[in-house]
């Protein structure tokens, strides 16, 4: 059986200063993208995090209200390790997110407040590998809503009730980047910040302790993602992104 050809990745643009990362759960960014975020904050770029849920349904042995507190704090600690000091939680219910107008509305408001040039999310395709490794429903709903919310945020006639007290429409998002997509054609070198990405994932201590038999190795897992991506970029470690362009319209 012939192995699929892994095409080279094109570097993402880095001529921007403000980004907003919107994902479904605490830990979503840390499974790869955090090393890239550490690179960019090290360049002086400003990045804010928005977590749609608090991941309260993500630890089987801990009741949701207690898990909410733990996971929000772990996310703040994790973000700080990669230079992010703005972390917001929308408080929507973990595990049962639905794509639709309410989710688009909530994300559009965040985009309008932060006015980013780049919006980062995680893979929202049906699978992680383009074949068998099924994605999770919250990731799919959130990513789809992010794309539409970015467009919504730039239209003054969509969710106009948000445009009060100085909040204005924002049509300045140039691109949306979905990390770890099986359709990724772009990437970024994270060789120098890989260790910070590992540290940020390890900060989700309670969540990781509940995975499988408790023997999850953050460095080993992330290296398994970063090395093949780095090869496609011609570097040691990389993070891959599927790029959606809004600056062509």
From TrEMBL:
Keyword check for Cell membrane: no
SUPFAM superfamilies found in the cross-reference section: LmbE-like
Keywords: Zinc
GO annotation terms (biological process): glycoside metabolic process
Coiled coil residues, start to end: none
GO molecular function: hydrolase activity, acting on carbon-nitrogen (but not peptide) bonds, in linear amides
InterPro entries to which the protein is assigned, alphabetical: GlcNAc_PI_deacetylase-related (IPR003737), LmbE-like_dom_sf (IPR024078)
Gene3D superfamilies: LmbE-like
Protein name: PIG-L family deacetylase
